[in-house]
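Researcher: I'm preparing a figure for a lab meeting and need a structural model of a single chain. I don't have an experimental structure, so a prediction will have to do for now. The sequence is pasted below. Please return the structure as tokens so I can convert it later.
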Amino acid sequence: MKNVVQLENIDATEFKNEIINGVILALKSNDSLLQLNEQSEQLLTREETAKLLSVSLVTLWDWTKKDIIPAYRIGNKVRYKRSEILKSLNQKNQFGEF
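Model: Understood. Here is the structure written out token by token.
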């Protein structure tokens, strides 16, 4: 299918401004999606993750050990992806208790 654009009674300057405004709007929309994606892929420390989940470090360690929440070891540090934490919580919420 073709989209047809018909222009009537508009001068070149108005047309240019409409195009610029459309591009700016599209870029702002895309920028907010990029920020959401960057935030969801953010790596969190154990303390940050426990605070996000409102649980103790012991509970977080237990959930990690039971593969409830996936963790990544970087050297001797443990990190969690924000997106995977939220996804894991949603899955557990659908099926009942931990």
